[in-house]
TrEMBL record:
Family membership noted in the UniProt record: Belongs to the TrpB family.
Name of the protein in its database record: tryptophan synthase
Known EC number: 4.2.1.20
PANTHER family: TRYPTOPHAN SYNTHASE, TRYPTOPHAN SYNTHASE-RELATED
Pathway the protein contributes to: Amino-acid biosynthesis; L-tryptophan biosynthesis; L-tryptophan from chorismate: step 5/5
Originating organism: Camelina sativa (False flax)
First-tier enzyme category under EC: lyase
Gene name of the record: LOC104724212
């Protein structure tokens, strides 16, 4: 007979009764949080009681905080505002009505807002409670392995239903679309993190979801595709024969491995020709970065609880949403003079938009359907090598991150993939979490910094973004462990060829 346990679903929000059932012999609930900072007995229907308290890998539960009620907009605090996006045909600053066929009105407002804080809707907060707040964890075992005096903390976003930070924006995007009566959403995905997150969010709000997944990833990562399909999404390998953009690519290269730029073109084309369909993007745009700042807002509180101030903040960058989500609230504090951390973006040598790209207006997609954005770009025709083992494959960097980089508030480096996977193995064998390929770049850079501290004797506080787990990326680990993974480098000729097609905007 099933036993019944009454408990609040989240100890850091208002108490709400929820029913949890378990069958068979009772084995204890040592890791179950029942009440915030409480040892009161939990009532169980068969007459006995248990005692449980919040547990965490972090000392004294200092990493737990209230979920922030607002997103933060860095643009409000920048004395030099970022350049506006331009219409792809007129090259004039884009108007809100120019985006109405792609996005719901509220997201268009958020894209251009100058307000410092945006309230998070209650409906979104309720869903955030499924996995937020996320833990800030001190990596003591990694510190010990490296024999470093540095103190390493990582903000772990892998506990979300989709296993990464991406639902932080997928949920509000699905919410705003559903609120305005949209029936269908379309998107692209590279490694599958974003596609699975939007599929999850769409299922909660009754939206139909269609995803164009980069062909190479579609075939390499069947379980990401299955996650999307489990949540009800339709998934197509990109390039596909379902769109004009896809057909053009296949005519010129029938075996094209695809790229995010191509997949974006396909999704945008479908959204533009169907009135009941809107487009969703998982990175790059201002409103996406805005939603991700919940990471940094939580983390500032958590660092304060630990009595620490970061000296170095490190995150991986592809389109940039994970990096922005952690770093932007800290940049605000830096602008206020409250702290002065080095903020370091880490990108793959296979797709180095910040470190080898140019800062220029470029299309966000291969076909030239999207607005022109001023960003660090390798050219919208750039296609990463299909043997690149992880995500972070986008040809451009988020315009707001690019602007912040140009203003000198952060720095950037690129790291080859073998070093990244070496770091991932060290992290997994000390901290227990198998990282997604994307945050392995941040891990490798963190290890570099920690080893420098070992040489200098500096006890720096290093804060790292750990944006997701790698449970569906084990084929990449298999290649690394077999010694089949190789580092990639691009000749200057290939980059020059791609950059030659960047539009010249005066």
């Amino acid at each position: 007979m099933a036993s019944q346990l009454l408990l609040p679903p989240n100890p850091f929000t208002k108490s709400v009764s929820a029913k949890v059932f378990f069958t068979g012999d009772y084995q204890g609930l040592n890791d179950l949080t029942l009440k915030k900072r409480s040892n009161q007995p939990a009532k169980v229907s068969n007459g006995f009681s248990i005692r449980a308290k919040a547990t965490s890998r972090s000392t004294h539960n200092k990493s737990f905080v209230e979920i922030p009620k607002q997103w933060y907009n860095l643009v409000a605090d920048l004395s030099v505002k970022p350049p506006p996006p331009l219409h792809p045909k007129t090259f004039e600053p884009i108007k809100p009505e120019d985006l109405s066929h792609l996005f719901p009105n509220e997201l268009i407002k958020q894209e251009a807002t100058q307000e410092r804080f945006i309230d998070i809707p209650e409906e979104v907060l309720e869903i955030y409670k499924l996995w937020r707040p996320t833990p800030l964890i001190r990596a003591k075992r990694l510190e010990k392995l490296l024999q470093t005096p540095a103190r390493i903390y990582f903000k772990y976003e892998g506990g979300s239903p989709a296993g990464s930070h991406k639902p932080n924006t997928a949920v509000p995007q699905a919410y705003y679309n559903a609120k305005e009566g949209v029936k269908n959403v379309v998107t692209e995905t590279g490694a599958g993190q974003w596609g699975s997150s939007l599929a999850f969010a769409s299922s909660l709000f009754g939206l139909d979801c269609e995803v164009w997944q980069v062909a190479n990833s579609y075939h390499q990562k069947p379980y990401r595709r299955l996650m999307m399909q489990t949540w009800g999404a339709k998934v197509h390998p990109s390039p596909s024969d379902l769109t004009e953009a896809g057909r053009r690519i296949l005519e010129s290269d029938p075996s094209s491995p695809g790229s995010l730029g191509i997949a974006i073109s396909e999704a945008v084309e479908v959204a533009a020709r169907n009135e009941d369909t809107k487009y969703c993007l998982g990175s790059v745009l201002n409103h996406v970065l805005l939603h991700q700042t919940i990471i940094g807002e939580e983390c500032i509180q958590q660092m304060e609880n630990f009595g620490e101030t970061p000296d170095v903040i490190i995150g991986c960058t592809g389109g940039g949403s994970n990096f922005a989500g952690l770093s932007f609230p800290f940049i605000r504090e830096k602008l206020k003079g409250k702290m002065n951390p080095v903020i370091r973006a880490v990108e793959p040598s296979a797709c180095p938009s910040l470190t080898k790209g140019v800062y220029a207006y470029d299309f966000g997609d291969t076909a030239g359907l999207t607005p022109l954005m001023k960003m660090h770009t390798l050219g919208h025709d750039f296609i990463p090598d299909p043997i690149h083992a992880g995500g972070l494959r986008y040809h451009g960097m988020a315009p707001l991150i690019s602007h912040v980089y140009e203003q000198g508030f952060m720095e950037a480096i690129s790291i080859p993939q073998i070093e990244c996977f070496q770091g991932a193995i060290q992290f997994a064998r000390t901290e227990g979490i198998i990282p997604a390929p994307e945050p392995t770049h941040a891990i490798a850079a963190t290890i570099r910094e920690a080893l420098r501290c070992k040489e200098t004797g500096e006890a720096k506080v290093i804060l790292m973004a750990m944006c997701g787990h790698g449970h569906f990326d084990l084929t990449s680990y298999d290649k690394y462990l077999r010694g089949e993974l190789i580092d990639l480098s691009f000749g200057e000729e290939k980059i020059r060829e791609s950059l030659s097609k960047v539009p010249h905007v005066v």
